[in-house]
Amino acid sequence: MLEIKPIFNSLLRSKAGAIMLLIQIAITTAIVSNAAFIAKDRIDFLSQETGYPEDEIFSFTTMTFDKELDIVQKFEETETMLRNIPGVKNASLFNAVPLSGSGSAGGLSLKPATEEGPDVRAAYFLADENALDTLGVNLLEGRNFRPDEVIMSASRDVFPEVTIITQALGLELFPTGDALGKTVYFGVAPLKIIGIAEPMKSAWLKDSRPDNVSIIPFVGASIFQKIIVRTEPEQRTAIMRQIEDLMIQDHNKRVIIGLQGMDEDKRDNNASDILMLRMLITLIIVLVLITGLGIFGLTVFNINKRTKQIGTRRALGARKSAIVRYFLIENAIICVFGLVLGSIAAIFMGQLLLENYSMPALDTFYVLMTALFVFIASLLSVVMPATKAANISPSIATRSI
Amino acid sequence: MLSMKNISKVYQTEKVQTHALRDFNLEVKEGEFIAVTGPSGSGKTTFLNIAGMLEPFSGGEFMLDNVNVGSLSDNERADLRNQKIGFIFQGFNLIPDLSLYENIEVPLRYRGIKAAERKLRIEECLEKVGLASRAKHLPQQLSGGQQQRVAIARALAGKPRFLLADEPTGNLDSLMARQVMELLENINSEGSTIIMVTHDQELARRAPRNIQVVDGQLADFTLYQNKSSDSVAERVQQSMAEV
């Protein structure tokens, strides 16, 4: 026995409170569905597969101030020293660290720079033959660099002739999928593609082409040198703790800076997204709580205002459950109108965000889920005061106030 | 049809026990019109609340149409109220946001009566109280007397065996009070049993049977013309003097 019609009529006759609540529900639905959608988008972004075993990798920079030193030769010894530390899987010299927000990118062309030709944006890492293994990335096709293909030089007079690229980059350069064995140009330098690697990200997750990565076997030994080390995951912290001492032992005229795990690098680099995510989640929780409290408060207010009416209804034969049902139905009616209005507002707001802030288009699924969530939260907020109302004694009907 | 034996009601606060009713005995026969009078605080309203199953009693036995009320659950009491009892309150207790039609509909909905029959009954009852043309009005658009007639229509709509009226004319001027009283008399003459609590001695005298509640006990004039208990009679005279 549902009393929708008389409850609806009764609401129409005393609209003010109901309309306030309706607007609150609508605003909550509109904001929460967009916030939840953006939050989900950020979570997807932050938890996306990077291609690296981030918890096994760390990096640091050495600054050498020994002017007499043969840097190229010293770094080969250093690399060997690092690889021999128990728990270290591999180590390699790099010009930049993936996901760190700092690196190099340029265009890879099908023609040398002197001629006009298609040009594809790609991030490049200059590293040695240990690069792929150190990054934990496998080859899909082709082969790794041979040691004799790696150029170690302080100048760029001699430049490598080979490269390994990611599949995404290969497909963009050669849409037919036959990149292996082809030649591309880095400026004027021709590079033969000898290997196609599994997906991995460049230094910037927010790059327009974060999946276009090329590795070029070149170590420009300089006084500033980045080194990436991959360890057994459970030993990384211990190794990171002793790395500075080991490096100084290896050569005492150097300074170690920027020692950081790859996951930490990624977190620092995406701090604004993490902050945004936290703020969005806070916003969602606060809004839902406020709406829940609003509904709770309005129901309590309504009950206090209608004590006599509730007693009278009980006297006229309403069971306790009928009183609870009355408030649930009343709330559900307000909710349905609020949710319809809120859903329209949500879609409209999503449209504005799409047009003005280049956000991805709002998925209607989020609006529906938010509506459902707000509906349930609002009914839950009513249950307690409504149960209290049901316990009002019918004898109140005969008491004159 | 209504029988109370040794009913007592004790209100318990932290330290004080108040006996609102004690050893209260009453037999009501079908078709009676009983006026209940008594000084303020004597237990009239408590008696009416217990008779209407609006509040539980502390001791004794209360039979309503051969149902032992003391053994019923809250839901069973609500259903029994809905089916057997029509209430008329001093303050009318109409629901302000509902039209007259919807107000009368409330107890019928709780009984699960179908819409078509509800309509028939509501129209019939509004006709009976002379307000058929105002079904869509809200209570606040009516005078006090009219509101009480709507409340009577609401009480009648469920075709209850008992009408319990709590000071039905208490908030009305004498003209309106007389109209309401006439309406109750008509209803009684059609067979409904009415128990009416009132302060108004004049109205009370119009009822065929008068009972008086004094200090939570019953003094039944009809009964005590034959066999009277001195102590009760004394108390009645005392309280009459106070009034």
UniProtKB/TrEMBL annotation, chain B:
PROSITE patterns: ABC_TRANSPORTER_1, ABC_TRANSPORTER_2. Residues 2-240 form the ABC transporter domain. The keyword ATP-binding applies. InterPro entries: AAA+_ATPase, ABC_transporter-like_ATP-bd, ABC_transporter-like_CS, MacB-like_ATP-bd. GO terms for molecular function: ATP binding. The keyword Methyltransferase does not apply. Keywords: ATP-binding, Nucleotide-binding, Transport. CDD domains: ABC_MJ0796_LolCDE_FtsE. Belongs to the ABC transporter superfamily. This is ABC transporter ATP-binding protein. It comes from Psychrosphaera algicola. The lineage of its organism: Bacteria, Pseudomonadati, Pseudomonadota, Gammaproteobacteria, Alteromonadales.
